[in-house]
């Protein structure tokens, strides 16, 4: 007792001890130590108790040595249905302790577990895959000319899924191995048919490449033997889709049209229309400055 404090207190009352901080190996266990007055038994400030007689509030606790084991999950299904694939599973390191009736596990870092870690991935092979092949293409090579019109090439191969040459690829789906290339940056190209004669010395009618509004276009030059050749565009589909027609039948009743514009010989018609005719077009004349069609006779 410290007489200067004007009261008495017990050196300490120990509350219930806590559990060990570790389930195995070396750990610590804590308890609460308080100062209690002798008269009423209530908790008082620690200055009323003799510090030299204060019980310890921490002590070491040692249980059985820790044991670590590898825990593995179930293997997954194969990643492919045929050919070479892989399977996966979960692999973890766990601490085992027997503080209760059954084993309990807690995950730990893999360095605590003995031996090598079991594999988490393994190859699998269910069956042979059916042989299939596809066309595979390489990159286009450089243009064969540095000025004008040339060609570019690339490799086209029919390969199986094992990268072996095959003849199973359909020919109608084979990508092109060569294509036309236009190199207009290192040479002077004509802008009209008259310049074709001046730059190339050409004197025959035919298709020539011209620079039109900054783009390379194929233009048919006609009248190259004259001093004023004309420019034409060749229609890709020819006269099969480029034509005009005036039908030679005229309805007796002009307010009744054939169904869906059909041409019927059994309609109520007259066949005396002298302006009837059919015109087809393979080329059209154009003005390269305005890119407009020049009508015949102009």
From TrEMBL:
It is found in: Secreted. InterPro entries: ADAMTS_ADAMTS-like, Pept_M12B_GON-ADAMTSs, TSP1_rpt, TSP1_rpt_sf. Residues 189-298 form the GON domain. It comes from the Eukaryota. GO terms for molecular function: metalloendopeptidase activity; zinc ion binding. Coiled coil: none annotated. Gene3D superfamilies: Thrombospondin type-1 (TSP1) repeat (2.20.100.10). GO terms for biological process: extracellular matrix organization; proteolysis. Keywords: Metal-binding, Secreted, Zymogen. GO terms for cellular component: extracellular matrix; extracellular region. This is GON domain-containing protein. It comes from Eschrichtius robustus (California gray whale). The lineage of its organism: Eukaryota, Metazoa, Chordata, Craniata, Vertebrata.
């Amino acid at each position: 007792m410290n007489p200067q404090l004007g009261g008495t207190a017990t050196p300490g009352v120990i509350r219930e001890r806590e559990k060990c901080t570790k389930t195995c190996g070396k750990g610590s266990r804590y308890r609460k130590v308080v100062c209690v007055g002798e008269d009423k038994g209530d908790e008082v400030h620690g200055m009323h108790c003799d510090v030299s007689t204060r019980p310890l509030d921490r002590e070491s606790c040692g249980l059985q040595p820790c044991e670590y084991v590898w825990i593995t999950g179930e293997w997954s299904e194969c990643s492919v249905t045929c050919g070479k694939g892989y399977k996966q599973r979960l692999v973890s390191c766990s601490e085992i302790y027997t503080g209760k009736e059954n084993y309990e596990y807690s995950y730990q870092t893999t360095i605590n577990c003995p031996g090598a870690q079991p594999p988490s991935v393994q190859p699998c092979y269910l069956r042979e895959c059916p042989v299939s092949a596809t066309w595979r293409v390489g990159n286009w090579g450089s243009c064969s000319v540095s000025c004008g019109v040339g060609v570019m090439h690339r490799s086209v191969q029919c390969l199986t899924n094992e990268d072996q040459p095959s003849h199973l690829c359909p020919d109608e789906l084979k990508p092109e191995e060569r294509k036309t290339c236009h190199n207009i940056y290192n040479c002077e190209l004509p802008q009209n048919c008259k310049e074709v004669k001046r730059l190339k010395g050409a004197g025959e009618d035919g298709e020539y490449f011209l620079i039109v509004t900054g783009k390379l276009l194929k233009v048919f030059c006609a009248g190259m033997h004259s001093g004023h050749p004309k420019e034409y565009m060749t229609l890709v589909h020819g006269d099969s889709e480029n034509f005009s027609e005036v039908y030679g039948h005229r309805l007796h009743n002009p307010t009744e049209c054939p169904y869906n514009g059909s041409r019927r010989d059994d309609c109520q018609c007259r066949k005396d229309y002298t302006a009837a005719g059919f015109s087809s077009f393979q080329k059209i004349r154009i003005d390269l400055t305005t890119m407009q069609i020049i009508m015949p006779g102009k």
